[in-house]
Design a protein that fits this description.
Number of strands: 7
Oligomer: single chain
Structural class: alpha/beta
Helix content: 40-55%
Order of helices and strands: HEHEHEHEEHHEHEH
Bound molecules: magnesium ion, zinc ion
Strand content: 15-25%
């Protein structure tokens, strides 16, 4: 019975997500859903992305959080355009929340939309928003066992960004083994090794994103 209810919720969500996708395509807004645990560095990666691409493309950010607008304020302070969604305790964004956020954005004037999902490795993986690419971020202190514990998140990701690379010498994180496990779950996932603190590896993430955006616009 419970399984059936969840399936219905997900299919209603998928219908709304498809409508969001239609609107985004109509306005030519390339949209990326960024997911991770709390504290993995989603906001830091977004700030690097704004810094690296803002002269080439018009960027906006949707900030999903259980409460507060701290991350939206950081984005705005960085010169980015931000819309905040507070989920009032909800542990993920869903397609319906995105409907109202999109209403509040000047879509004609946006080419790249970054969505910072609520920090959680479980249900954000289940709820499509209408995005074109899903990115999951894992920071080294979380441990290299996460693909075993949260396989869905790693299976649906188009890109996996490993963050906090500067901490590698201090941790027992088997980075080669981790990459093999991710590839075992999901061969098409691109994997990036970055440190948002030092900037190491950020360039390769930016060039992937830039290429994906160009591919999208050439379709
Ligand atoms: Mg954040
Ligand atoms: Zn949830």
């Amino acid at each position: 019975m419970e399984v059936k209810v969840l399936q219905n919720i997900l299919s209603a969500n998928d219908q709304l997500a498809a409508r969001n996708r239609q609107l985004l395509n109509q306005k030519r807004v390339f949209t990326v859903n960024i997911m991770s645990s709390p504290g993995a560095g989603k906001t830091s990666l977004i700030l690097h992305t704004i810094k690296g691409l803002k002269d080439k493309v018009k960027i906006a950010v949707i900030e999903g959080d259980v409460a507060s607008s701290l991350d939206a304020e950081k984005v705005t302070a960085y010169g980015g355009r931000a819309v905040q969604i507070n989920t009032d305790g909800g542990c993920h964004l869903d397609a319906n929340m995105l409907v109202s956020a999109l209403d509040n954005l000047p879509l004609d004037d946006i080419e790249l939309l970054l969505i910072e999902n609520v920090g959680n490795l479980i249900c954000p993986a289940e709820f499509a928003l209408g995005e074109h690419k899903k990115v999951m971020l894992l920071s080294l202190p979380e441990g290299d066992d996460k693909p075993y514990k949260y396989p869905l998140m790693f299976t649906i990701a188009d890109a996996v960004v490993i963050n906090k690379l500067d901490l590698l010498p201090y941790l027992d994180f088997d980075i080669e083994g981790f990459c093999r496990t991710v590839k075992g779950l999901n061969q098409r996932a691109e994997i990036f090794r970055v440190s948002c603190k030092t900037g190491e590896g950020v360039e390769s993430w930016l060039s992937w994103l830039w290429n994906e955006l160009k591919n999208y616009n050439s379709i």
